[in-house]
Design goal:
Elements: H1 8-14, E1 22-33, E2 36-48, E3 53-57, H2 64-71, E4 80-88, E5 91-92, H3 98-104, E6 109-112, H4 116-119, H5 126-138, H6 142-155, H7 161-164, H8 174-186, E7 192-196, H9 204-221, E8 224-229, H10 232-235, E9 241-246, E10 249-255, H11 256-261, H12 266-273, H13 314-318, E11 324-326, E12 331-333, H14 342-354, H15 357-375
Parallel strand pairs: 3-8, 3-9, 6-7, 7-8
Antiparallel strand pairs: 1-2, 1-4, 4-5, 9-10, 10-12, 11-12
Helix pairs in contact: 5-6, 5-8, 6-8, 8-9
Length: about 375
């Protein structure tokens, strides 16, 4: 293993203008626990260019956060195994020791964590938390760091930024704490930002403000961003590409526009169907995805989504579908019976006739939508 400390010059030498900023190939991450090995990420590959945004979507337990933390080398411990390849500006991240990664964290890549209340130290004032890594990476004085912190808090639209630097996290609202976390992540002007469920536990208005803030900062700084969320509505109009994960696997990946207009995987369709729609009446019951995510210690044979899929056929339970190109080749999907195809429609009719529970749930939702549309 290479034990050389990474410097800015090394990263610059590894970079080529024609190559993507981040290249991930066949990434696997597993956790050893008394029950067995939890296969949290299973063979994920993607590329991300400078200034672009990738949305990573899926239910809780799909492997989204573990993927982001694995790329940043934050899943440390004797029970964690990560294999595959992750290259940042040509530099192999997985081969770098923690000492080298500390030169990248904050300076080249940063993360906005899911829960700002636990991400921030409750015993340390905001000012120190914003300036600590700035002084380490930039080598500036305490006075200069504080001035920079005030500018950062102004940039993320924190009112009375000077006084907020002397506040503790519990003295701020949830939205303000999340803005502080964003300021900390952006302080050293990283080129790659991971935003892990940045709107969790925030009300709808604040969610909109936080997402707009991230988009504005990304465009201003020409950052690449990986936006992790369970909500397809969050990535709509905010990401260039979207990657849908289920049970540690990528089940669909394409441009966000293409995904919303021509989704191919039943799981993507199920996520889309569960989004509340303004065209529906108040208190309309949401269409839930039947069943629950699989046990990642002992995942099912064949397609991981097959126990919950309304189109499931015997082949789905026996053979795992590969992630292959569809349409123009830039759209990747892993399904034996892609959404919208004649084979898919025939499978649905067959399952309805056989009374498959998850298929009947979808049929009921479709029938309800049709009746409401006719009434209106």
């Amino acid at each position: 293993m290479n034990t050389t400390v990474v410097s800015d010059a090394v990263v610059a030498d590894a970079n080529t203008s024609a190559s993507p900023l981040l290249v991930v190939e066949d990434l696997h991450t597993s956790f050893s626990i008394p029950r067995g090995e939890v296969k949290a990420v299973r063979g994920v590959s993607f590329e991300l260019e400078q200034g672009k945004t990738l949305g990573v979507v899926g239910e809780s337990g799909s492997g989204k956060t573990v993927l982001a933390r694995s790329i940043m080398r934050l899943n440390l411990g004797n029970n964690v195994t990560t294999t595959g390849s992750a290259k940042f500006r040509g530099l192999s991240i997985l081969d770098q020791p923690p000492k080298s990664m500390r030169q990248l964290w904050g300076n080249e890549m940063a993360m906005v964590f899911q829960d700002p209340m636990t991400a921030l130290n409750p015993l340390v004032k905001i000012g120190r938390q914003v300036t600590e890594h700035v002084r380490h990476h930039l080598g500036i004085s305490k006075k200069e760091a504080r001035s920079l912190a005030v500018d950062l808090l102004n940039e993320v639209r924190i009112p009375e930024p000077e006084s907020r630097l002397d506040s503790y996290p519990h003295e701020l609202s949830g939205g303000m704490r999340q803005r502080i976390c964003i300021a900390i992540a952006l302080a050293c002007e990283p080129t790659l930002l991971f935003a892990d469920e940045p709107t969790t536990a925030l009300d709808v208005t604040v969610q909109h403000q936080i997402l707009n803030l991230l988009n504005r900062e990304q465009e201003t700084r020409d950052m690449a961003m990986v936006l992790v969320t369970h909500d397809l509505g969050v990535v709509a109009g905010r990401t260039d590409e979207t990657m849908v994960m289920y049970a540690g696997n990528v089940v669909e990946k394409t441009s966000t526009h293409e995904l919303f207009n021509n989704m191919q995987h039943p799981y993507t369709e199920a996520l889309f169907r569960s989004i509340p729609k303004t065209s529906e009446r108040s208190h309309t019951r949401l269409t839930a995805i039947a069943g629950r995510p699989p046990d990642l210690i002992d995942p099912p044979t064949g397609c991981s989504f097959s126990p919950r899929c309304p189109y499931v056929q015997p082949k789905c339970r026996e053979e795992k579908p590969p992630l292959i190109p569809v349409n123009d080749g830039s759209h990747l999907s892993s399904c034996w019976f892609p959404v919208g195809t004649e084979e898919n429609k025939a499978a649905f009719r067959k399952n309805v006739a056989e009374g498959l529970p998850q298929t009947l749930v979808v049929e009921e939702a479709l029938a309800g939508g049709s009746s409401e549309g006719s009434e209106s």
